[in-house]
């Protein structure tokens, strides 16, 4: 009797006893692109949120220098504001430092804190900001990551390019009676630097008052078009080593904090002791017992 092979697997015309044990090829349906796009979008969102709001503190020293000889930055840093930013909280703290504060310079000598920038620039042009950061770190015990340096002439041009800054004075200040004003560049500089009949502590308070008014003006969306127009002036007026990728973090923190959320403080007259050096200079000796708690509160971990 001949066995029928009509339904048996055949290889090259021969019977294949292992045909039933071979794997079966399965064709998968095409994957949905929508799921991949959503996953990618979530990943990008997480990265952006981490970048903007990661609880990383950034400390910046803001320096305002006097008019310097043409083509140089050979000047004292008459404005020194130690700034700290924590975007997650958000927290923006700014501590104004008196320019006559008597401290130890990086070279070991004692002098006004605002001279560190001048002496460094005199020895080697371009080293002033590093010297200013070093003297702050050495005396205040606070790490300084970056600096922002501006000349007062550039400050005037920047304010003018914004169309002026509205400010409300509830009491007399810098020669202005109580009332509402729009200060142009020259008026703003005179306001923040005024010392006529006052002292450096009044000057610092005027600077903080103007700073709060400027932030209040700039964070309003209706004024952003003026800020965009003023960017070229700002770029030419400011020298900084703050990397570009950090600016959005700083901006978001400032927007979230708002003018009323800024923690603006100064080393006050109660925290220093005035004295006259052996060369006849009137300076301020820091009282670190009173200053250190402020540093710890503003810049501590």
Number of self-contained structural domains: 2
Count of DSSP-assigned helices? 9
Q: Roughly what percent helix?
A: 40-55%
Could you tell me the CATH topology label of the largest domain.
Nucleotidyltransferase, domain 5
Short description:
The chain is an alpha+beta fold.
Notable characteristics:
301 residues, alpha+beta, Nucleotidyltransferase, domain 5, Aminopeptidase, six-stranded mixed sheet, two-stranded antiparallel sheet, 14 strands, 41% helix
Commentary on this structure:
The protein has 301 residues and is of the alpha+beta class. A six-stranded mixed sheet has the order 11-8-3-4-5-12, with helices on both faces. The protein folds into two domains: 142 residues, Nucleotidyltransferase, domain 5 (2-Layer Sandwich), CATH 3.30.420.590; 90 residues, LCP protein (Aminopeptidase, 3-Layer(aba) Sandwich), CATH 3.40.630.190. β13 and β14 form a beta hairpin. α5 runs antiparallel to α6. It contains nine helices and 14 strands. The chain starts with 9 loop residues before the first strand and ends with a helix.
